[in-house]
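Reviewer 2 asked us to include a model.

Predict the structure of this chain.
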Amino acid sequence: MKRIAPILLSISMLAESAALSTTNTGTRLGQTLVELRQKYNIVGLSVAGLHRGRLVWQTNLGFANLERQEPVTDRTKFRIASVSKLITAVALMQLWEAGRFQLDDSISDYLGFPIANPHHPDKAITFRHLLTHTAGFADGQAYDDFLAQASNEISLRELLCPGGRFYRDGAVYAAHAPGGNYCYSNLGFALAGTLVEKISGDRFDLYCASHLFKPLGMNASFNPATLPAPIEIATLYRFTDNKWIPQFDNYQGKVPTNRLGVSYGIGRNALPCAPQGGLRANVGDLARFAEVFARRGQNESDGVLKSATIALMLGRDEQGGTSQATLAFQRHTNLVKGETWIGHTGSAYGLYSLLFFQEDGPHGVILLTNGSRPGEEHDGFSPMEREIVHAVHAGLTAREKESDLGPVEP
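Predicted model (structure tokens):
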């Protein structure tokens, strides 16, 4: 395996949460992350350990931008790819809490135009289908070509409805009926974001800013042009022809162009906001979001979601047991042996990201990277992701045994 240039390897930890960094456990965990960064040729990363949703340990390694030699810091925001789907789901479920729709309603009744799988024209596509990846979308080349237009001026009906420029005989629809097979879909969450707009009357990124990010104290955005200066967004890289090539978010410290523009049509097509994978956030932002779910809604004062809605999204019944499919969240039993973890992964343009917490335990892990050689994915995770999660989980376990710290109260 090829190694990152020596100057990259010389970068050590830039920041750690004081709750753990001064202990022997924190020192060992920090050194482990340095070694894993070398092993997987990671350009830059930010990692956090959570206890009952609260950030108790963080480290940042490497570069946010190689060309400018900008280090990753606590303030560095990363594109988080499909972890963004969790935020999109919360936005939609807030509107569900407000009684604006029912989960088993047909989305055609809210979009303003009818959509149907041509293989099953009489089977409605519902909100629940979108949030459980059972809507019967296959995405594919037609979706990719539509996405490449990056324009809100083109309605989603051009992709989803007969006669549309990108419909192509219903290429985005799978052969199975809605409500049947699980089929992971970015298009489904593009629709979820568009429905947030149609129902709320707000542009998707602005809805999230006022209804999620502000109450949670998150300085995150689906529109990087709105982030305050200085712009501290990690450039995304892929290793090609024996070198790191910038792929996305290469802003060079400059304010990004506002790609949404003044002619944005609310409810027409939210893809330019990228509800399926375009949030820029740092580890601290995501820790504030994770606390809502890791603590199972114990603190409703943030006004984001009620505890019953959180239980519904996590697939829990009133007694706390697993009763149904999660909404947007992924439930994995193969991340840590013998344990169930809930969260989401993300990957795009060379980045890898994840946010996961134990279903029946106190620990959580957030990982953000902007370029790596992570190894071959197996059962949903790369070797890099598994090793980092295991290392942080072990560090948090050791932390609880250190007499000078004691348990973190729930």
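Confidence is low (pLDDT under 50) at residues 1-19, 403-410. The first strand starts at residue 44 and ends at 51. We have added this to the supplementary material.
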